[in-house]
Amino acid sequence: MEQKAHEWTSTATTHAKHLAYLAAMIAFSLTAVGCDSGSSPKVALPSTAPPAAPSSGAASPTSPTDSVVAAYQALFAAADKAIVSPPEQARAILQTYVAGDYLDWEIRQVMNHQAEHQEPWGKVVVHITKVDLKANTAKIHDCQDASRAGLADSRTHVLIPKTRGIANRNLIANMTRGSDGRWRVTGLRQYDSPCHVSSLPSG
């Protein structure tokens, strides 16, 4: 049975959901994936969560799979920095990790959150359960725990009610390798069906 993905709009309510939903880093919201087809919803990343190391089996540290996973994980630290930076600096920070329409969308989210005095709160934990790798594209399945992440008021640093995320958030990130050889996130979406960390591949 086909899973259903969520698409979120850029309202104040969805902003809070975004941070809570994603885990942390970029601009924080869940909406349709910018560089995907119309059926793929974008997910903005909350911005404060160093992801947990994925279970990648026996792959070597320099394997293509590890390169894709490392690029996905690095996005979160970058997003954490971008959300507290001026928009022009935020773009410079994020463009190493995000590409296409999704980058533009994330920058808009950064601006929206700053205008509403919102900042990332807590941390999300990334649990990579599967990596579908092709020559220049990849899909990362992340059973993310966002139960300890959300949005805070940047003036008081206090968690905003109802912005905390949930555990077992079923996310799929679309990755593309650019002409410079770097992998970047071009879309992120969340599915209704819960995921399970127990499904992580064993070594």
TrEMBL record:
Which superkingdom heads the taxonomic lineage of this protein's source? Bacteria
Q: Identify the PROSITE patterns for this entry.
A: PROKAR_LIPOPROTEIN (PS51257)
In which residue ranges is the amino acid composition biased (Low complexity)?
Answer: 54-63
Ranges for region Disordered: 40-63
Name of the protein this chain belongs to:
Lipoprotein
High-level lineage: Bacteria, Bacillati, Actinomycetota, Actinomycetes, Streptosporangiales
